[in-house]
DNA sequence: CTTGTGGCCGAATAAAATTCGGCGAAATTG
DNA sequence: CAATTTCGCCGAATTTTATTCGGCCACAAG
């Protein structure tokens, strides 16, 4: 089953990725179609998992999550880059992203915690528990200028 | 004006960050309150900008965005870390994140493009345009195991 | 004690989502 | 080429939901 998105699908995605809670009626107006037709398209995009979910962006500071860090992780298995380690990393709620990367290191993860001591605890208690992890290199974020996951959607 | 969130606010945030499109009626049931009261709380969380927005997560592959990279950027102005450069970087639609980081480099940015050639184009045409950028160090993502922006919200 | 403030409830109303029968274009089949 | 199926869309009917608003209660300030 091949996924093909037409111009209107892309228009819809473009609108709802910026505002997930736009009313279906308004969305229909924007793409100049009947609400029922648009709803049908959105449902199909959900089924095809082009739409992966709807999330609310929350200010991390408001819920006392002040620390953000990126950690490069090297594994002992060498170039194999254990998927087991990846799974364990991904299971940690503080870990927002786990990427398998090119280069000497194996993974790059993005971690958000309450403060520096909880980051330390995470590294000592959680990362050390993962056998394949041989070394880490941590980059602390001092200030975030921009942070969004909106992606570029082609016109056509 | 100090922001204080009570237990129910945190419950609400926890629910809606995982599912922005839950109906207000269902949300009210979950926190055991009247729909009108919950709506009032949500509106206030929006006003206080604890809630920063509602977004739809879209599969990047479905819209032909296959390349993901992290780029460390060093600036010539030294430790100053020009906010001008930060602003210019943040203005690029391919750039999803701009972080000011501790260490030798100044910025870490997260970039998503269609493919490797469009990443090259971005670096050649856009990054080079920014005068303060003196050098870059790019990390290519081969595979993403986890990617979410959900943050940990305390129980209380 | 009185006055205000804030948050909540619940019913009434307005708006929205959702369903569904039918239509027409395009593709498929015999 | 005609018959048939499929698909996406429309639009009205229906159901569900959001939203408004008056009133109530608890708490705090005067």
Automatic annotation (TrEMBL), chains A, B:
<dbReference type="Pfam" id="PF13412">
    <property type="entry name" value="HTH_24"/>
</dbReference>
<keyword id="KW-0805">Transcription regulation</keyword>
<dbReference type="InterPro" id="IPR000485">
    <property type="entry name" value="AsnC-type_HTH_dom"/>
</dbReference>
<dbReference type="InterPro" id="IPR036388">
    <property type="entry name" value="WH-like_DNA-bd_sf"/>
</dbReference>
<dbReference type="InterPro" id="IPR019887">
    <property type="entry name" value="Tscrpt_reg_AsnC/Lrp_C"/>
</dbReference>
<dbReference type="Pfam" id="PF01037">
    <property type="entry name" value="AsnC_trans_reg"/>
</dbReference>
<dbReference type="InterPro" id="IPR036390">
    <property type="entry name" value="WH_DNA-bd_sf"/>
</dbReference>
<protein>
    <submittedName>
        <fullName>Lrp/AsnC family transcriptional regulator</fullName>
    </submittedName>
</protein>
<dbReference type="InterPro" id="IPR011008">
    <property type="entry name" value="Dimeric_a/b-barrel"/>
</dbReference>
<feature type="domain" description="HTH asnC-type">
    <location>
        <begin position="5"/>
        <end position="80"/>
    </location>
</feature>
<keyword id="KW-0238">DNA-binding</keyword>
<keyword id="KW-0804">Transcription</keyword>
<dbReference type="InterPro" id="IPR019888">
    <property type="entry name" value="Tscrpt_reg_AsnC-like"/>
</dbReference>
């Amino acid at each position: 089953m091949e996924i093909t998105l037409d111009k209107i699908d892309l228009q819809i995605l473009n609108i709802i990725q910026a505002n997930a809670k736009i009313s279906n009626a308004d969305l229909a107006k924007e793409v100049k179609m009947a609400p029922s037709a648009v709803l049908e398209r959105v449902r199909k995009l959900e089924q095809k998992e082009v739409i992966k979910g709807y999330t609310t962006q929350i200010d991390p500071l408001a819920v006392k999550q002040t620390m953000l860090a990126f950690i490069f992780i090297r594994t002992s298995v060498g170039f194999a880059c254990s998927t087991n380690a990846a799974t364990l990393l991904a299971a940690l709620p503080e870990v927002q992203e786990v990427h398998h990367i090119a280069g000497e290191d194996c993974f790059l993860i993005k971690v958000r915690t309450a403060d520096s001591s909880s980051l330390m605890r995470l590294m000592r208690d959680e990362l050390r528990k993962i056998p394949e992890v041989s070394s880490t290199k941590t980059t602390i974020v001092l200030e975030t200028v921009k942070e969004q996951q909106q992606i570029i959607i082609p016109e056509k």
